[in-house]
Amino acid sequence: MVRPIPFTHRTLLGLTSLCLLLIAMGTATAQLRGRFPIGPGRYYPHDATRLYMSAVQYMNDADVPDRNARLVAVVAPNAPFPLSGSVAGHAFKPLKSGQYDRVIVLTPSYQARFRGCSIPSVEYFATPLGDIPTATDAMEQLNRSSLINLRSVHYHDAPYARGRRTPIHEVEHGVEVQLPFLQAQLGEFRLIPIVVGELLDHRRQVDDNAIEAVADVIRRVMDDRTLLVISTNLTRHGPQYGNLRHRSNVVENVAQDDMAILDRMLDKDIPGFHRVVEAQGDALEGRVVLALLLHLLPRRSTGVVLNYDNSGRITQDAINTTSYAALAFFDPGHPPNAQREVRTLRLQRHEESEQEEEPVESQLGTGDENE
Fold this sequence. Notes:
Blueprint: H1 9-30, E1 34-35, H2 48-61, E2 70-76, H3 81-92, E3 102-108, E4 117-120, E5 124-127, E6 130-133, H4 136-142, E7 148-151, H5 179-185, E8 190-196, H6 208-219, E9 226-231, E10 236-237, H7 250-266, H8 270-279, H9 287-296, E11 302-310, H10 311-315, E12 321-331
Parallel strand pairs: 1-5, 2-9, 3-8, 3-9, 4-7
Antiparallel strand pairs: 2-12, 4-8, 5-6, 10-12, 11-12
Helix pairs in contact: 2-3, 2-5, 6-9, 7-8, 8-9
């Protein structure tokens, strides 16, 4: 005969503790301390060694003259490596190991629509080259703004069921694709990853006052050893993007449009930048993040276009194209930052790298190249 277990206060306490433990385990599973990569095999090589060698090769091949001035910001594209890696290599070539303690990466939101900016509430970003710690103190300071939201990262289906939650950082690639270049060239640093959504006024027009408000908050967490990275492509052209501005000589005409935009950026002419973008049909992929850059640049900074290309030229398909540019902005009033000692990057092969992986080059033509 099985005797029933007496229900006492001790039993209740035990059950309560068990429930709390299960809840804690569920929370730990749902809200993780790290953000995991989505790019291996899609945007860049899956294996750590191949990834490192690819990033280094792109930078070694870049012809960028040395400048005796502090680098304050770069613009780099974020398409898959075979399309924009060569251009991105030019943006990161000026960096030297240990020159910056923090890196702020600003990228447009590609997978979700929301107002303001979003920062993942994580302690590190994982890449095949290792984990990058985040600057949690600065991220919490940014979260005090009503236009910047610190958001948890989840990797299970429950929060997304029935539309209760839209994934943002779990699926965005814009920050991630810049990290291998930074890890290979800069070494150790703390990351501030910011995904930029809509900053519009009541007329659904770009709100420059909101952009300045966001820039003002970001400016407070920047110092001389903070590098600003703008992760964006430029003009999207073709029926896939609803932009048929040019019917012939697409690559050449898009390049001319882009140079008009980049000239306004190099002049730090914010009203002129918006006028040119609007006159061209507002087809610029990263308008808001580029406007944020213009608000954040020091007045005496000078910019240079380091490289430019177009997916239509690379793939020989000018039906749907995306253009890419590498820009660098320097402060001529200060010399380059001193280098501090950093640990040597230790490559770790991905746990699945023993399996035969699909070459990144095979992604060309799948549609991912214009994300």
